[in-house]
Amino acid sequence: MNGPAPRRFWRAPALKALLGQLLAFPLTLAATFLLARAGLSMSWLAVALLQGGWSALLAWRMNLAPWWRIIQLVFAPALVLARGLADAAALPSAVFLFLFIALLLVFWSTFRTQVPYYPSGREVRDIVAGLLPERPLALIDIGSGLGGLVLDLARRRPDCDVSGIELAPLPWLAARLRAGVTGARARMLRGDYERLNLGHYDVVFAYLSPAAMSGLWHKASSEMKPGSLLLSYEFVITEREPDRRFVTTNGKKILYLWHF
Ligand SMILES: C[S@@+](CC[C@H](N)C(=O)[O-])C[C@H]1O[C@@H](n2cnc3c(N)ncnc32)[C@H](O)[C@@H]1O
């Protein structure tokens, strides 16, 4: 593994979103107070909608991506509705704690990396397997999730050294167990690919997010060895034109390839 990953913590949109909610709170209080003085009493849901409105407005002013504005808008109302649902169904509060811990273990540092978990699927695996050179290779999926692609390639190419690296604990554990149960010759590493030397691999596969691509390009271009391949599903690198494109899923998503 290499040195520490760049600190993106304080620039994480999730922290800006939290700040937006905190700044919106006094505005909501003031508006609720003024409306109450004017004789207009509001339900909890109406107050939450007001909080959502202020937060969405602040998200727009902070230049957060459109989906963050929607999240900010619905966050407080969703809390009020969930609370109402819990009361109506007499759910124990432990249910929410359990859900929170499960989501935390799956999405872990998504707030920093801006790369959530979603699988790539069989069609991509078929294309990746088809374009691998016919010689023993060291291959890695950076952000391997539940390990689907890694296990599939390890099964198809027993001559290759296939690994995956995953930051989030629960998907990593699931991938590790899957490899153990199926007896796959695949290495499931737990950690941050930003600390890994990509120069050890002939093929690097990534299915990340637009936010990660520029950093990945700088890392790959300084570490990957001549003759190696970088593959990125769905998300393109703007710094260098891909050498090849493979169209998947009815022409909607593309697998990009760069030669080094
Ligand atoms: C879109 S999923 C792709 C899963 C898998 N590669 C596939 O094709 O099905 C991206 C995964 O990358 C992981 N991830 C994000 N940033 C990471 C990092 N810096 N190091 C390791 N894993 C990371 C996320 O936790 C998530 O599970």
**What is the approximate shape?**
elongated
- The sequence of SSEs as H and E is HHHHHHEHEHEEHEEE
Strand content: 5-15%
Oligomer: single chain
- List how many beta strands DSSP finds: 7
Major beta sheet summary: 7 strands, mixed
Short description:
The chain has 9 helices and 7 strands. By secondary structure, it is of the alpha/beta class.
Q: If you had to describe this structure to a student in words, what would you say it looks like?
A:
- The protein is of the alpha/beta class and about 260 residues long.
- It contains nine helices and seven strands; from the N terminus they run H-H-H-H-H-H-E-H-E-H-E-E-H-E-E-E.
- Strand 2 (about 160-165), helix 8 (about 170-180) and strand 3 form a beta-alpha-beta unit.
- It is elongated.
- The two termini are about 20 Å apart.
- The structure holds S-adenosylmethionine (SAM).
- S-adenosylmethionine binds near residues 117, 149, 166 and 192.
Topology, pairings included?
Layout lengths: L12 H25 L6 H18 L4 H24 L4 H14 L2 H4 L8 H10 L6 E5 L5 H9 L4 E6 L2 H14 L3 E5 L12 E4 L3 H14 L5 E5 L10 E5 L4 E7 L1
Helix pairs in contact: 1-2, 2-3, 6-7
The structure holds S-adenosylmethionine.
S-adenosylmethionine binds next to helix 7 and strand 2.
